[in-house]
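Q: Second attempt. The first request was missing the SMILES, so the protein and 2-acetamido-2-deoxy-beta-D-glucopyranose are both included now.
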Amino acid sequence: MCGCCDGFWDKVKDWLICLAIVIGLIIVTGVVLIIVIFGGPLRHVKISVEDASLTRFALVTTPTTALAYNLTLALTVRNPNWAIGIKHNKPLEAAYSFDGQPFERVQVADKGEKLGPRKTVVYHLASSSEGRGVALGNAGEAEFRKENATGVFQVEVAVTGKFKYTLRKTKCKIEATCPLKLQLAAPGAASVVFQKVDCELAKSDDKYC
Ligand SMILES: *[C@@H]1O[C@H](CO)[C@@H](O)[C@H](O)[C@H]1NC(C)=O
Ligand SMILES: *[C@@H]1O[C@H](CO)[C@@H](O)[C@H](O)[C@H]1NC(C)=O
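A: Got both inputs this time. The predicted holo structure:
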């Protein structure tokens, strides 16, 4: 392609054409790569509960219905994209509820926090209360007694937030629910084995998320 030959200036001309072609190819390849990496399909973040422990879960009925609890969670957030990072636009929060009634909200990640491509971050969340008011009602109290008799409590963790992908404008919602079955264990007692729970993410109605 880049033949040699005749005069010196012909050689220079050939060489310049070659150079132009090579630079052109590099630019085209670069643009295509950027489009593929940043404009290609995205994979949503993955959220799971790796570990959880419940050392106290008691119903307080006076003066009002409340729950006294000590609950710790190891919540992981994973960004499966291999080149695209995410940045939280709103604080990432976890809300705990029993029998559909929220009794605790925990901030997981702050606004502005970033999660690089292929990165996983583990958040260790510990909450306790001597009595946090909760609108269980009669039905909820009955459910509590029922589960209390088995020693296993069903607590749902709902994770909510908003984030943006690198170089994208759209703000994407995170709405995940993690149904947990927690065996009540005395502190210091032989630790209860917890099976990792993958949280279910709500499908986004925005095709850019
Ligand atoms: C619960 O947490 C409180 C304060 O963090 C601590 O004083 C108490 O011993 C804990 N109780 C249980 C049963 O883990
Ligand atoms: C829950 O169970 C414990 C013992 O397993 C018992 O001491 C406690 O009174 C029960 N609480 C309620 C509200 O039934």
